[in-house]
UniProtKB/TrEMBL annotation:
<dbReference type="Pfam" id="PF10294">
    <property type="entry name" value="Methyltransf_16"/>
</dbReference>
<dbReference type="InterPro" id="IPR029426">
    <property type="entry name" value="FAM86_N"/>
</dbReference>
<dbReference type="GO" id="GO:0016740">
    <property type="term" value="F:transferase activity"/>
</dbReference>
<comment type="similarity">
    <text>Belongs to the class I-like SAM-binding methyltransferase superfamily. EEF2KMT family.</text>
</comment>
<feature type="domain" description="FAM86 N-terminal">
    <location>
        <begin position="23"/>
        <end position="107"/>
    </location>
</feature>
<protein>
    <recommendedName>
        <fullName>FAM86 N-terminal domain-containing protein</fullName>
    </recommendedName>
</protein>
<dbReference type="Pfam" id="PF14904">
    <property type="entry name" value="FAM86"/>
</dbReference>
<dbReference type="InterPro" id="IPR019410">
    <property type="entry name" value="Methyltransf_16"/>
</dbReference>
<dbReference type="InterPro" id="IPR029063">
    <property type="entry name" value="SAM-dependent_MTases_sf"/>
</dbReference>
<dbReference type="GO" id="GO:0032991">
    <property type="term" value="C:protein-containing complex"/>
</dbReference>
<keyword id="KW-0808">Transferase</keyword>
């Protein structure tokens, strides 16, 4: 009889332990703002929470009452929907729901509606248990750029680097099309890079990126600069971005261009498609205002490259692949080039290939043998094939790398994602 009771207690302990693991998974999905209906959430978890009310409190503490939710809250509408679904799941078990759950839901319902929810915080767990919190657009494509959201390939690439840190440790790194900084911030926090240069061509992306870097790599971490900043200029900039995002919210949210251009126009680059060299100084480029906080960023004479004052490893660069000077590419030479979800539009492939060629050959006087690691979601086989053919025509080889073994982040894996390593012959 005693052994039977002991076995029963052990069984309950195992169930509770399994449920706590499930709570951790639910928490991660909550902070990444995984659509609530797509959450990996078993009915057994709800049943266990009904049987053990303490687990309901644990879930609240791991989501809507978590310190990260206080400092970097997901959208209010998302939090309300999450709590509504929680109550529905618990009630489906024919049991009373703890008062604390109802209280938390009522509190969310009583809060005033946000001015808008075009920008929201998403937080991603690191192996250490710490979070990287980014402010992102809720729209996949906004203001003519895909860079205001974190895409699947960036998460996939970050998972791979966390399993293969030797690729970037003690090396200089340049990232092309970095977007809001997901991959780079994780690399800077979890790996021992010599330097990391974030590059993108969209001014709003770079502005939000600079704030995301401040929050996660500098003295502003654990506080929301967007919420607490007393800098009127930064507040105006954020309001402008919100307004523009709101106006563009009815645009195409497919997330990629289904361009059916003639592949022959891409596979061999024309003689005119060359990065400027001897006539470099005659090239006119529109002036760029990075809108960076001068207390945190030091900008060079070109106003295209900025160094982060709180972390000497980190730089930020305005880089337009179609309007780039050779001098600028020399500044971006690195041991490792990273990119995620940059091969989605046939029209940009020639310029991208030329930039990669310049970086992978390492410069005329360089002994470097750089490597590029490019993660791509294979939505369009034609775009992928055109990119590979164009790279091969420039003498650049590639190999397909093994996918990460551990799935740390919650993103759509129904479409294949691959990581390719490129190098010059």
């Amino acid at each position: 009889m005693a052994s039977s009771i002991e076995e029963c207690n052990k069984s309950k302990s195992r169930l509770k332990l399994d449920s706590l693991e499930s709570l951790k998974e639910i928490s991660s999905q909550f902070f990444e703002m995984v659509p609530v209906r797509r959450m990996r959430w078993k009915d057994d978890d709800a049943a266990m929470m009904v049987a053990c009310p303490d687990l309901q409190v644990e879930l609240l503490n791991a989501t809507v009452r978590h310190p990260v939710c206080h400092d970097f809250p997901p959208a209010l509408s998302y939090r309300r929907y999450f709590m509504k679904l929680l109550i529905q799941k618990l009630e489906a078990q024919d049991a009373d729901v703890a008062d604390e759950v109802y209280e938390a839901y009522t509190d969310l319902l009583s809060r005033p509606e946000d001015e808008d929810e075009t920008l929201c915080f998403k937080s991603y767990a690191l192996p250490s248990g710490e979070y990287v919190s980014l402010q992102e657009s809720v729209h996949l494509v906004s203001q003519g750029t895909t860079g205001l959201s974190t895409w699947q390939a960036a998460q996939h690439l970050a998972e791979w680097i966390l399993e293969n840190p030797q690729v970037v440790n003690n090396r200089t790194v340049t990232e092309l099309g970095c977007g809001l900084g997901f991959t780079g911030i994780i690399v800077c926090k979890c790996c021992q890079v010599q330097s990391y240069t974030f590059t993108d061509c969209h001014s709003q992306v770079l502005y939000l990126l600079s704030n995301n870097i401040n929050q996660n790599l500098g003295t502003d971490k654990h506080t929301s600069e967007f919420k607490d900043s007393s800098n009127d200029r930064e507040k105006r900039m954020l309001r402008k971005i919100r307004r523009q995002l709101s106006q563009s919210s009815n645009g195409d949210n497919s997330g990629y261009s289904d361009n059916n251009a003639d592949l022959d126009s891409i596979t061999k680059l024309a003689d005119s498609d060359q990065i400027c060299t001897c006539e470099d100084e005659d090239l006119t480029i529109e002036p760029v205002d990075l809108n960076l906080n001068p207390e945190k960023w030091g900008t060079d004479s070109s106003s295209l490259l900025a160094s982060y004052r709180h972390d000497s490893r980190v730089r930020l660069c305005h880089l337009d692949w179609e309007w780039v000077k050779e001098k600028q590419l020399e500044e971006l030479q690195a041991d490792v080039i990273l990119a995620a979800d940059v091969v989605y539009d046939l029209s940009i492939i020639p310029a991208l290939v030329l930039v990669l060629k310049a970086l992978l050959y390492g410069g005329a006087n360089s002994n470097r043998k750089p490597r590029a690691f490019i993660a791509s979601t294979i939505r369009n086989e034609d775009s992928r094939d055109a990119f590979l053919i164009a790279m091969a025509s420039e003498g650049l080889n590639y190999s397909v790398l093994e996918n990460p073994k551990q799935q740390r982040y919650f993103y759509d894996r129904s479409v294949p994602i691959e990581i390719l390593e490129f190098y010059a012959t």
